[in-house]
Amino acid sequence: MAYATALKCRECGREYPTDPLNVCEFCFGPLEVKYDYEAIGRSISRDSIQNGPITMWRYEDLLPVDAANAVDLQTGFTPLIKATNLGRILGLDHLYIKNDAVNPTNSFKDRVVSVAATKAVEYEFKTLACASTGNLAGSVAAHAAKAGMSSYIFIPSDLERGKVVGAAIYGPTVVAIDGSYDDVNRLCSELADTYPWAFVNINMRPYYAEGSKTLGYEVAEQLGWQAPAHCVVPSASGSMFTKIFKGLNEFEDLGLIPKVNTHMHMTQAEGCSPIAAAYEAGTTRVRPVKPNTIAKSLAIGNPADGYYSLKVIEDSHGDATIVPEEEVVEGIQLLAENEGIFTETAGGVVISGLKRLVERGAIKRDEVTVAYITGNGLKTIEAVEELVNPIHISPTMAAFHEQIPNP
Ligand SMILES: *Cc1c(COP(=O)(O)O)cnc(C)c1O
Ligand SMILES: [Zn+2]
């Protein structure tokens, strides 16, 4: 049973039925799912959640689809790991890594796609589609396979090999476009007007976006039913960033956790940091940029939720950090060598951004801090390949001792 009652324009407040719509007909504002929180409050409790499946669907009451029909690859309830080694190096006593790289297709995108795909089946779409910066591609293709739908995946042609292969293997039609993600997205908006396809991040976007709230719920539950003092999050469109905060606040409003005093910190790589740059400039007007970054999964030059992200930064007394391109790989290494977690470039942005936040005093030693690791390193090996040098020998003791005289 889903408690979504309407779609509501975030700008003018007009309401629409829960249809495959994403913009307001009157003011072109984005639509967001509205819920009957009173009914949810009567249904949900810590117990009801803990008795649910060990996936994101344990929060079904707060998702806009009927969980009984979920297109479900067992996404979510990923580990929240106490990062003692990294914490010691950075000077944090309560640092946690939310390792969302271990989802079925190795990124947090499975959360949003599972919800969008479920809604697409409910609407009887036969084709699932997306404009992707990389991780969405694999997730959409996998969920389409699971749902028995066909799929069209649109990507920029310069995407990492691991992301292209990691999508193509599920049997979609992959279309590589000579242009940036923003060009891909523009084309997809036209296609969405032309063909009866469920574009998860265009006409399904209001439902899709809600999936990211589970990243807030899970962390609060895993911390023993409380919100952290700080969340450090990588952003592309800014959607996940806003929804983590929304998730925490919904839990507070439902009485599941005490008052939320979480500071939301956004991290972006220098080569594509339109939201962080607007924050630094002290404006809520996000100026589109042409991305040129190693963190391709975050390479959205014209972020749909830029403005709303800046509002979340303001409301949560958080901030935004621009990570220099050369520090992205350093962040990947820091996490791998100290915590045994291999993240993709987006995670490198988060760890280096976290380091900067601590150095500038925005995060204090005794404060509970969660760094969101949203994608897996094996998808972006190009970024680190040069750093790894296996020792090559023939299979003899002599050869071993020649290379490693004092093991
Ligand atoms: C898509 C993506 C993000 C950012 O998502 P937005 O909601 O668009 O800001 C972060 N990390 C990874 C690994 C991603 O693939
Ligand atoms: Zn409107």
Explain the layout of strands and helices:
Layout: E1 4-9, E2 15-16, E3 31-35, H1 37-43, H2 46-50, E4 80-82, H3 84-90, E5 95-99, H4 109-122, E6 127-131, H5 135-147, E7 150-156, H6 161-168, E8 173-177, H7 181-194, E9 198-199, H8 205-210, H9 214-222, E10 230-234, H10 239-253, E11 263-269, H11 274-281, H12 306-315, E12 319-323, H13 326-339, H14 345-359, E13 369-373, H15 397-403
Parallel strand pairs: 5-13, 6-7, 6-9, 7-8, 10-11, 10-13, 11-12
Antiparallel strand pairs: 1-2, 1-3, 4-5
Helix pairs in contact: 4-5, 5-6, 9-10, 10-12, 11-12, 13-14
The protein binds pyridoxal-5'-phosphate and zinc ion.
At the fold tier of CATH, the topology name of the largest domain is Rossmann fold
Total separate domains: 2
Small-molecule binders here are: pyridoxal-5'-phosphate, zinc ion
Strand order of the biggest β-sheet: 4-5-13-10-11-12
Choose one word for the global shape.
Answer: globular
The value of Rg in angstroms is: 21 Å
What is the residue-mean pLDDT, rounded to a whole number? 97
* Beta-strand share of residues: 15-25%
Unreliable residue stretches: none
Percentage of helical residues?
25-40%
* Order of helical and strand elements: EEEHHEHEHEHEHEHEHHEHEHHEHHEH
Number of helices: 15
| Euclidean distance between termini CA atoms | 61 Å
